[in-house]
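Troubleshooting entry. Yesterday's outputs looked truncated, so today I'm pasting the complete records for two proteins to confirm everything comes through intact. If either block looks cut off, that's the bug. Protein one:
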Amino acid sequence: MRDTTETIFYSGVGPLAALLLGVGLIPLREQTPASSFTFAFLVLTIVAGELGGGWAAAATALTSALSLDFFLVRPYLRLTIYAKEDIIAFVGMTACGLVAAAFAARRGEGIRAQRQLALLRSVLGRLDQAVPLESRVAAAVGECLDRLPVAGIRVRDMDDRVIARVGRTTSTRSTLRLDLDLLQAEPALSLPLDGALLPLAMEGHQVGWLELWGAGARSGLDTRRTLAAVARAIAAALAASPRAVGV
């Protein structure tokens, strides 16, 4: 799954590649109109969008337009344009690049939604297996550890017994308590590195705790909504098996 680190990486690499592409095309600038170079920059923008999402594509598109103007359009090495056809090429490059960025952003959102749904289906499948509760919950939270930006997860019942533990956790209980509604609604919320505590409830009755440790990256709203759905599924499993044995 594409995370914040990848987006930041390609948002830097894409513009740098656009500058290098402009430099690399300098030997050809006297042999062909500037509009001929726009296709190369468009391909680069599309690739940046596929790898890094909409922000990477937008940054690459804008840098590509500037690189085209600065290196390949007369007067060279200046951000000015004299010829009418070069103005058209510059405007067209900018517009097409931003359109490609918009489509990359929408496609990225669709891919993320599909992956979140696939994760939820997998978690529900794990919790529905005919194995002990500890094994089911451990498998379910293990799926989340592999696919979401979390460093560790621990599940406890109301007797403070550990039902499952995966990833990096601490021996003491987390003190920061988060409400599931806040987890789903807050637009800018990062899971703390030292852990957060989520109550697990079923039909108004608390059945346990879900502890989450962040991985240092900002978690998107879709990720946190998925975690809330996973928490509710685990709560249902705990409520159906009240005699879980700690590990």
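Protein two, checking that the full record survives here as well:
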Amino acid sequence: MTIIECVPNVSEGRRTEVVQALVEAMSRSPGVGLLDASSDPSHNRSVFTLVGAARALKAALLTLYALAIERIDLRTHRGAHPRIGAVDVVPFVPLQDATFEDCITLARELGHSVAERFGLPVYLYEAAALRPDRSSLDEIRRGQFEGLHTKLAQPGWEPDFGPNVPHPSAGATVIGARRLLIAYNVNLDTDQFDVARQIAAAVRASGGGLRHVKAMGVDLVHRRLVQVSMNLTDYEETTLDTVFDAVKREAERRGVAIVDSEIVGMVPARALIEAGVRYLQLEGFRLEQVLERRLSSTLTLPRRPSS
């Protein structure tokens, strides 16, 4: 069975009744599994993890768009996370028996349908991009919702599907295909936003820090803390423990301790196991030594005798 992962990011993380309505709608979608739903009031954003075949995912996501457009108005939305749309970004990731081509096709089909049904400008990004100079999510989202009118009027920034003007309340949306990534945040024991901003600048790839790391500082007003919020776009090359150590070093240089860290959404087991192996300095450890992995791959349960 072909399985694709989809991780829609929606610009609502405070009104629990809206988030719950989205969760319930996706939970009822035939052929789709809702693996996780994470919301943050400071980011004012919710991240959902769905899995299923292409046709089922497309149907579920059209329902998600309809509800989000009906209930989210970006003209009054405020939050720490950049956004251009009520449904801000929808990436597809190939999992079991799925290919990047499957995800690219699905992204483009969904983009066409969303533009046609809801009158939303749609940008395609990463592997699904129609133009290589517009594959970066950060570049597409630069200027945010408030700058969309100006951006859409600029030569070269016409959407891939839909009108050249933003939806009045829902803005635009970005749909694409990408590799698995890990959304990883480290929370600092200070309320000084500049500290988080400086550390994010030091560890992210674009600032000369760690490869495959995107990072920004976030003010967690509801916890009276600040956060280094990161995406690890190649967790095998730049690992969780490497990122944690880098943030810790930068924090210690500024006399700040780490309170905790968190993973948003799902994470591959291999990423956690290998991070633990390195921290414990386990010599010669093999993934096959993990009991659950071994059981799932080798254990055959005896059949009950037929009556």
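Both blocks look complete. Sanity check on protein two: DSSP finds nine helices and eleven strands in the chain.
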